[in-house]
């Protein structure tokens, strides 16, 4: 494992930052002419500017070719009203910025303040290198990051309830390298990937527009990147992806972000999520991967004090390894696997969470091995099936599921949970082998397993048994048995 992480150091990736500054074609255009940009985000921007009476009416800084840094860019623009160095190494940006696929922007040892009234986002299809820098939202009247108004839970994900704010958006063709930096106060609930720090392929509203060159942009590679040793705080989402590929996040802190601390979504694949800390998500989960986010690894992370679950796999996210994580003091489950098959949950510690240590729902092919599930507010482990037809917000064509749960539970230590050690309900097939239920008192098993206490406790220590609804033992263990 040590060799695997050895390359994920700031010094290693700092060597990849280009030295040359040969940037060309710095221009100011109307964002409405950029058909490669998301139209939903454009109309949100225009609505915000018109409401505030801003005169620039949708101007964007266009970087066309070459390598730029902020000092060079400010010199080429000669527009201190748009980009200025307000003190040594501190820059204030008052327009959105768009990077073409042939552009590299380097932010190294600087502070970049993005104007909230101007929604000064950075959208890029080229390369973004950020090293030892601060990127923050900025309210020029308050002269600070511009704290958000308080949300009610029922309103937090409603479109345009909150103020439009700057954000970073890596689109198709983009590559991001971010090391030893801080991201603060970005993002809002817009219609498309405006959540803070995002890698996303979405071009909502352009798919059927012949002027958008949609199919040309679709031919560019999915966004990718490496994020090592960063601090991301007070953003709407700490981190978001949509169809990103081979992204590595190692040694970052996601703290006090509004909804999710960490939310890779929609068909993102081959993610490495290792040795990060997610703490204090105000309305939802610490780490969640959702909607066919496959072939990923969550390894040696810490998730604590989040309003929702510590770690969640959701909506057909498969072939994911959840290994050696620590999840505690979260409002819901320590680890949740919802409608997501073929996942391994191994060698984790989940304790002191408000709900279950581990929840498995409508998911098959789940391996739960060598975990410690300790002092949780309900059960050590709950396995269940549930009819979700009453979930009015769920598109069952986009997110289908089978109402079946099948899992192996082996070699776990499960104790001192307020409910039973294990519980199951519904169409659950569960294989139990050599688990330690010490400290579970008399309430070893609940739900459909409650009547099978003697059968479970009397099984031989070196064997295992399948337990199924409606019968004591449904299948003898064998070397070929598998969930």
Structural features:
about 475 residues, mainly beta, 22-stranded mixed sheet, 13-stranded mixed sheet, about 10% helix, elongated
* First-to-last CA distance: 27 Å
Sheet bearing the most strands, described?
Answer: 22 strands, mixed
Mean pLDDT level: 90
Low-confidence stretches: 476-480
Number of strands: 42
Please report which band the strand proportion falls in: under 5%, 5-15%, 15-25%, 25-35%, 35-45% or over 45%: 35-45%
Structural class of the helix and strand makeup?
mainly beta
Number of helices: 6
Structural overview:
- By secondary structure, the chain is mainly beta.
- It contains six helices and 42 strands.
- The strands form three sheets. The chain has a 22-stranded mixed β-sheet that branches. The protein has a 13-stranded mixed β-sheet with strand order 3-4-7-10-13-16-19-22-25-28-31-34-37, covered by helices on one side.
- A hairpin with a 2-residue loop joins strand 3 (83-87) and strand 4 (90-93).
- The protein is elongated.
- Mean pLDDT is 90; it is low at 476-480.
